Amino acid sequence: MDFSHELIVPEEGFPFKIFLFEGGGGNYHREKHWHRSVEIFAVHSGELEFYIDDRAWHLASGDFMIVNSNEVHAIDSPLMNETVVLQIPLRLFENYFTADQFIWFTHEPGRRDEHFMELVSELYRVYSWKGCGYDMKSISIFYQIMYLLVKDYRLTDVDGAFMRKNKNLTRLSAITSYMKDNYTGEMSLETVARIFDYSPNYLSRMFRRYAGITYKDYLQNIRLRYAVKDLESGRYNVTETALRNGFSGSKAFARAFRKKYGLLPSEYQGKADQTLKG
Fold first, then answer.
1. CA 95, 99, 100, 102: dihedral to nearest 10 degrees?
2. CA–CA gap between residue 258 and residue 267 (Å, rounded)
3. Fewest Cβ atoms nearer than 10 Å: which of 133, 185, 269, 278?
4. pLDDT (tens place) for every residue of the chain, 278 residues total
5. Which residue from 255, 222, 221 is spatially nearest to 238, judged by alpha carbons?
6. CA proximity to 151, closest of 204, 119, 113, 105
7. Distance between CA atoms of residues 9 and 17, nearest Å
8. Beta strand spans in 36-107 (E)
9. Which residues partner with 57 through β-bridges?
10. Degrees (nearest 5) of the Cα angle 19, 23, 25?
């Protein structure tokens, strides 16, 4: 399993980020990941398959999903759809935290869903319009959505296990962000554990339990994702790509690449070159 931490940055000048889901064209899969922000998926046409922890949800037109902070989720989009995604930084809910940096929203559909969907649709329409006063109108609609979230969807009686998992994923988010910023350098388990004042064994257990992957595999997957971009750019050969992205050499890079993608880096680069020429 490859659970990744996603860093979400709001739109400039706004307290949120809103956009059309990148899987709208169909034939799309987003692997398991988590982030600190609260995320809303509002399906306006088509359908999505949503996975949160071990539970599957089918979203059809008119349905929406609230993804909580630090909640591991994945998405399948086999068919075309139009889905609006609204991302809200966790800090905006600080006056309503149930515990330290903790707030939880229900996924269950209810009588308020139609009005909630209308507000998300209107926010996307007004924000995309960019007409006179759109910024003030957008923020006005956004805070209506925030009001409904804390009034109608917030859970105040939450099991302690949720809080503990949330706290540990918050810690893990800081670690994975550091790894993404420094993946090209020395990133042994012992080095990173020392930086964050953990024992190597404890940090290793954190990754296995809360990210569902070993530390080594997580780091390798970060390096591979950036290496793929280098191969696709055509600016670097395989050896240069390996060394630029923290691998000890081309052989180690080739082994890791083939294990994850099913072909050698040189084969992948050849296909990328053909696509560009085409």
1. -80
2. 10
3. 278
4. 344 545 455 667 899 999 999 999 999 988 877 787 899 999 999 999 999 877 899 999 999 999 988 888 889 999 999 999 999 988 899 999 876 668 889 876 655 688 999 999 999 999 999 889 999 999 999 999 999 999 999 987 766 666 677 677 778 878 888 898 899 998 999 999 999 999 999 999 988 887 777 899 889 988 998 999 899 888 999 999 999 999 999 999 999 999 988 999 999 988 766 554 55
5. 255
6. 105
7. 7
8. 38-45, 47-52, 55-60, 64-67, 73-77, 82-88, 104-105
9. 50
10. 110
List of residues 6+ apart from 19 with CB closer than 8 A: 84, 85
What is the rounded distance in angstroms from the CA atom of residue 84 to the CA atom of residue 121? 7
Q: Which domains does the chain have, with CATH numbers?
A: 4-150 (2.60.120.10), 182-277 (1.10.10.60)
Q: Which DSSP string do the residues of 128-145 spell out, in sequence order?
A: HH--TTHHHHHHHHHHHH
What's phi and psi for 146, nearest 5 deg? -60, -40
Do residues 33 and 213 make contact, with C-beta atoms less than 8 angstroms apart? no
